[in-house]
Design a protein that fits this description.
The chain is built from ten helices and eight strands. By secondary structure, the chain is an alpha/beta fold. The strands form three sheets. It has a four-stranded parallel sheet, sandwiched between helices. It has a two-stranded antiparallel sheet with strand order 1-2. The protein has a two-stranded antiparallel ribbon with strand order 5-6. Helix 4 links the parallel strand 3 and strand 4. Helix 5 crosses helix 6 and helix 8 packs parallel to helix 9. The two termini are 18 Å apart.
């Protein structure tokens, strides 16, 4: 995106748990304390500081930035972006990659066990590390079900939206992307399905040679974000 002339910022949330960017080992205690509300608050805090001039202060960016903000949200990040998009007048476009359409993804039994035990424990398939999320994460979702709802949030947006999803995504089914599209303002929404690819558009970590599916997602987003005179 930067090579295409965009000013790009990659935002990590404070409790994402990653200790070092090149070593995918998590801080288990920090990761366990994260919530959806916290991530929404942090993205809002960051955008407010951009708008108030605190992020680009004394840089060349202050001269070349046109004042518009475009957001790309991936998977759960798309839900965070959907919640925040209507809160700032200068968020003018939103791209949703492999984005979930519902946050409550757990059975009644899972939720009962989670709340009773105080945490949900699971293995990070990439590292083999055991991680957990405290019950506050689930309580936050249940308490704020209405305000967090991706379907309701996309239905309220009055800005252009791009939805990109892999046809073989088994982590977030294509039906969730379809549900988001159906709830959106279709006059302002582009829906792109990339065939024969899954949740990460063929990408592994660390990323070496960008796969074709990822390049397609990126090209769709470039064309969507960048106005061609």
């Amino acid at each position: 995106m930067a090579d295409s002339g965009c000013i790009c910022i990659s935002l990590d949330f404070s409790l994402n748990g990653i200790k070092e960017i090149h070593k995918p080992i998590y801080d288990v205690e920090n990761f366990a304390k994260n919530t959806i509300s916290r991530e929404i608050e942090e993205l809002c805090f960051f955008i407010r500081n951009i708008n108030e001039g605190n992020v680009f202060k004394n840089t060349e960016i202050t001269r070349i930035w046109n004042g518009e903000i475009h957001i790309i949200g991936f998977s759960l990040g798309g839900t965070i972006a959907l919640n925040v998009a209507s809160k700032f007048l200068n968020i003018s476009k939103l791209a949703l990659w492999a984005t979930i359409a519902r946050l409550d993804r757990y059975t009644d039994r899972q939720k009962e066990d989670w709340l009773n035990k105080g945490s949900l424990d699971f293995e990070n398939s990439a590292t083999g590390q055991m991680l957990r999320l405290n019950s506050e994460y689930l309580s936050d979702i249940l308490t704020n079900h209405e305000s967090f709802s991706p379907i309701k949030n996309i239905s309220k947006l009055d800005i252009p939206v791009l939805i990109v999803h892999g046809s073989q995504d088994i982590t977030v089914a294509l039906s969730e992307a379809t549900a988001l599209y159906e709830a959106s303002n279709k006059y302002q929404t582009n829906f792109e399905i990339i065939e024969r690819t899954g949740h990460t558009f063929g990408c592994g970590h660390p990323l070496k040679n960008p796969p074709s599916a990822f390049s397609q997602a990126l090209n769709f987003t470039k064309d969507f974000f960048i106005d061609h005179e």
